[in-house]
Description:
This protein has one domain (23-101). The protein has helices at residues 12-21, 66-74, 80-93, 95-111, and strands at residues 40-44, 61-65. A two-stranded antiparallel sheet has the order 1-2. The chain contains four helices and two strands, in the order αββααα. The chain is mainly alpha-helical.
Amino acid sequence: MLPKPPKRVRDKALLARFAATRPWCQACRWEPFQDVLVGLHIHHMTDNPEISRRSDVQDNLMRLCWNCHGRFHSGAQWTKAELRQHREDDHHDNAEEYADMEDQYDREVRDG
């Protein structure tokens, strides 16, 4: 008998936080000019067997522009490992900026 797959975690608050604090594509670095929600998608990484492939957990999420997201899912660009490397490089290169944006987001949520 196959092991039971992990349960999907849904977290709308985390998705809102992630969208607000990752304002550019983590693959090509494209950044929308105005509304962060337009043209950027939240991609579920799906390559960790311990996490349900559609779980909303920080380690399973990546911000992609509509173009990179479509190219990845069509198989035209990047393997899962290559896409994860883009995410890790982005997190390394922008760690301080992400921390600042997350602090600002927390203050805005706390202060209403």
